[in-house]
C-alpha cells in the first residue's frame, strides 16, 4: 500500500510518455486520415447509398439503377466498349512491351529508344487527344494516317483517271458511270468514236494529244475515247473535232456474248485497238473502274472504327511504360541460366518461350494488372477524341458515368450506380494489391 | 544445330535496328505533327497537311503562339494550372510524409488496420468521389474554386503517397532512429532532420508523379473548376467542339500544356521513370 505511490511515480512518467507518443503518432497521421475519410472513404459509402435512389434522390428504388444499366442501350453500349477495352488494350500493351523490351536489349541506342517511347507518358491525355484528332483527320490532305493509307493504296491500285467523266448522251454509249458504258453491236473492221464529257479541261492529263481514231485491222476493232468538248465555239457533239483531245489511260474492253475477250488502254490521243478478234459481233465496254471516285482513306473516327482508333492512341501513350517495366525485369534475369541454355544448344526462340517468359511472369502480371486498372478508368482520351456525333458509339463506363451525372443526363442515381460499378470492377485489383503488400512483409 | 554466322547475325541485328527506327518514327510523328501544325497558319492547316512544311518551311511562324499569349482567358488558364498543381504537390508530399512516418515508426491505436485501408484505397477511381464531394464542396462554398480542386486532388493523391513513403521510411535502420531518440530528439525533430533527408529519393519521385498527374488532369477540374479557376486542359477541351477550324488555338495550346511536363521529363528522367513506375499500381 505504501509502495504504491513510488510505483505510480515510476510508472506514471513512462505511461504518460507512452500516451504522449501515441497521441503524437495519431497527430502525424491525422491530416491524411481526415482528408481520406472525408473525401475518399465517405464518398464511397455515399455513392453506394445514392445508387439505390432515383434520379432526383427522393425515392428509394433498390437495385433499379443497376438493372437500368443493361436496359438502357446507351449505357449497355458503354459497358460493351469497356469490355472491349479491357480485353484488347492490356494484352496488346503487355505483348508489345515484351517484344520491344526483348528487341531493345540487342541495340546500343536502347536508352534513346526507351526515352522516345516513354515520352508520351509525360503528355496529358487531352494533348494526346488533340494529337490524335489531328492524325486521324479524314481528309488525306490533313490527317497524316489517311495520307499514308491513301498513298499506299494508290501505289498499288492506281487511282481512277476520270472520276467525273460521263458519256455524251445519245451518241452510241448506254449505261452510267456507276455501271460503266456499253456501245452498240460492232463487227470486226469497224471504228468507234466514244465521246465523253464532264472532264474539266484542267483535269485532262498533261500528255493528252488531239483525238484521232486509227484505222482498224480487218480482224479487229479500233476507235478513240475523247473529250467531246471544244473550248470556245464550233464543237459538234459526237464528232471528233480539230481541237478535241483524247482521254489517255482509259480502259476499254471488247465484249462478246457478255464476256470481255480483250482489254486495251487508250493512248495519248485516246486511240485504242483490238487485233485478231474472231468473227462475230462485239460490243465495246468502258468499265466503271474508269470513273470510280478517288479513294478517300479510312473513316477512323466514324462509328465503326472509333473505339479501335482511340485504343490505338492509348497504345501510343502506354507502350513505353510497359516496355520499360518489362525491360527492367529482363535486365534482372539471371544471366547464367540464359548462358547455360545457350551452351546447351537452345535457340533464341526456345530460350524466349521456355526460359525468359516463365521467369518474367511476375513482372508481366504486375504490368497487366496495372494496365487493366488504368484501362477500366479511361476517360479523357475517349471524351476528347470521339467527335460529338459518334460520342455515343465510343462511350466507355467512365465517360457514360460523366454524361449521365453531369453532362446533361442529370440522373445522379444511375450515375452513382455506374461509379459504384467502376469501383467494384477494380476491387480484384485492390485485393491483389493488399495481398501483394502483406506477402511483401513490411 | 546451325550456328549463326557473322553474316546472319549482322543481318538479324540490322533488321532489328531498322524495325526499331521505324517504331521510333511512328512514335515521334504525331508529336511532330502537333508541333508543326502549331506553327502554321489556320489557312495552311485547312488546305494541306503539316508535312508540306518540310519542303516549304516558309509556312512556319510563331503567329499562333503570339495570339495565344494575347488571349487573356488561356493565359489565366495556364496560371490556374500552376496554381493547382504546385500547392497540390507540396501538400501531398507534406501530408503523406507525416503520415508515412507515423505509419512506419510511431504507435497509435488502429495503426496497422488503418494502413491496410489506405492500401485498399489505392485503386479507388476518382469517379466515385465526383458527385459526393461536389455536394460537400457546394455546401461549404469550395465548389468552383482553385482550393476545392486542390483539396480533391490532395485527397486522391494521398493513398499512393502514404503507401510509397511509409514503405520507403520503413527501410530506415531502426538503430538510427533509436539513437536519435536516445539523444533526446523529439519526433518532429527526428522527422525533419533525419527522415526527410533520408527519404529524398522517394519524396522526389512522389512529387514528380503527383505534379504530372495534376498538371495533366482534366476530369477533376472539368467538374470542380468554373470559368475563372479552370486549368489549361479544361479551357482547351471546351474548344474541341469546333476542332477543324480551331487547330490554330488547340495545337499551340496543347503544346503549351505539354511543354512543362516535357521539361520535367528531361530534367528529372530518372526520378520521373521511377515515379511513374512506382505509381503504376494506382
TrEMBL record, chain A:
Chain segments annotated as transmembrane: 83-103, 115-136, 313-334, 355-376, 413-434
Domain ABC transmembrane type-1: 79-433
Principal location class: membrane
Protein's UniProt keywords contain Glycosyltransferase: no
Pfam families to which the protein is assigned, alphabetical: BPD_transp_1, CarboxypepD_reg
Keyword Transmembrane found: yes
Top-rank lineage group of the source organism: Bacteria
Membrane disposition: Multi-pass membrane protein
UniProt KW keywords: Cell membrane, Membrane, Transmembrane, Transmembrane helix, Transport
Subcellular location: Cell membrane
Family under the similarity heading: Belongs to the binding-protein-dependent transport system permease family.
Classification via PANTHER family: BLL4140 PROTEIN, DIACETYLCHITOBIOSE UPTAKE SYSTEM PERMEASE PROTEIN DASB
Name of protein: ABC transporter permease
Organism (species): Streptomyces hydrogenans
Automatic annotation (TrEMBL), chain B:
Classification via InterPro entries: MetI-like (IPR000515), MetI-like_sf (IPR035906)
Keyword Transport in annotation: yes
Subcellular location: Cell membrane
Membrane disposition: Multi-pass membrane protein
Top-level division of the source organism's lineage: Bacteria
Main location, first listed in the record: membrane
Family named by the database record: Belongs to the binding-protein-dependent transport system permease family.
Official protein name in the record: Sugar ABC transporter permease
